[in-house]
Amino acid sequence: MIDKPLDGIRVIDFGQFIAAPAATQVLVDLGADVIKVEPVHGESARGIGAHGKAMVENYNRGKRAIALDLKDPRGQEIARRLIAGADIVVQNLRPGVMDKLGLGAEEMRAAHPHLVYATVSGFGLHGPSRNRAGLDIAAQAESGLMWVTGEHDGEPQKVGAQIVDAATGYVCAQAILGAYIRRLRTGEGDTVEVSLLEVAIHLQAPNWGAYLDTGNEPRRMGNGQPTVAPAADIMPTSDGSVVVSAYSEVHFRRLCRLLGRAELADDARFADNESRVRNRGALLTELRAAFATMTSDEAMDVLAANGVVAGRINTYPEAMRSPDVQASGLFIEVSRPDGVPATALGTPWHLASVPKLPTAGAPDLGQHTAELIAELGYPTDALDALAADGVVALGR
């Protein structure tokens, strides 16, 4: 039997919503035993309808769940015992909350120097906004991402998914794994800090790099790109649309030939990239007229077979039916506590040591409270008393 990379590693997850739970979901799929600690009324995502339910189900697969009242000293003691037996702690509660509870990074790492303790925040822990609550949309706004997204003559737009939250989870997992590798070498734990704001800026490295190099501020321009054409441009077809990038001279000539418009490559308006950028409107009018006579499948067949970068713009159902998506195994069948199977997103990587992802879905609130309290050595009558006093919540 092949061992998973993190078999035997225990993680305590105080995360809510996306960023921290996304980080620990990576650790689950690598083999770690992740214990999700929630308030007795449930984490915040459980109370915001279908979208929150989707967060819980897709970022908490295969975790064990315990529900604690961390405002009660007895709940804090249970949390300390959980942390004492762990290798990694991850949290994204409002800034300062864990410190006030006596469960912050400094205190826990002083007591347990082997710990890797990771904190996800909105704006970092060292600037004037360190105590602000932060969500994906605020990071998109303050990083410049919204400023460069949208049509040139329109208002700034957010990206159509919580891309910063999800990316922050992956960045956090990467940093945790780096810190844990160091612990394997030295025996010393580490403190990890990741912020939505920093990740949102870093996601725009090409834009920021160009700005730092030239001083020219990026601007919104819809689906095109500022210095090359055609690039990331939408081409409506008879039954949908595709996005096309063919801005090198070789690829532009090839595109024109494949569309039956070879003469466009010799048109003075489009003779080189600078001319095509300057005459982008006229260029798109010519190209779109050719694409309008084709279906999306016809366009993709001819472009992909000839090395032109293009993509069919899919709806969600179309993306799910894509043969490439189906071959990836990204969508997995998981079991729910109520016994009703469901489809969830797996993890977007493949390791030989993880031939199959865990098939357990997200746990119910407090589903493993009794099991974990027993593992910590509490007798049954103590569990009953804790439950009666509302210090813990037991799953159904």
The arrangement of helices and strands along the chain is: EHEHEHEHHEHHEHHEEHHHHEHHEEHHE
Count of helical regions: 17
Strand order of the largest sheet: 6-5-4-1-2-3-12
Number of strands: 12
Main β-sheet, in a few words?
7 strands, mixed
- How much is the average pLDDT? 96
What is the overall silhouette? elongated
SSE diagram, text form:
Blueprint: E1 10-14, H1 19-29, E2 33-38, H2 49-59, E3 64-68, H3 73-84, E4 88-91, H4 97-100, H5 105-111, E5 116-121, H6 136-142, H7 163-186, E6 190-195, H8 196-202, H9 205-214, E7 233-236, E8 241-245, H10 249-258, H11 273-278, H12 280-291, H13 296-305, E9 309-312, H14 316-321, H15 323-328, E10 331-334, E11 342-345, H16 369-375, H17 380-388, E12 392-393
Parallel strand pairs: 1-2, 1-4, 2-3, 4-5, 5-6
Antiparallel strand pairs: 3-12, 7-8, 8-9, 10-11
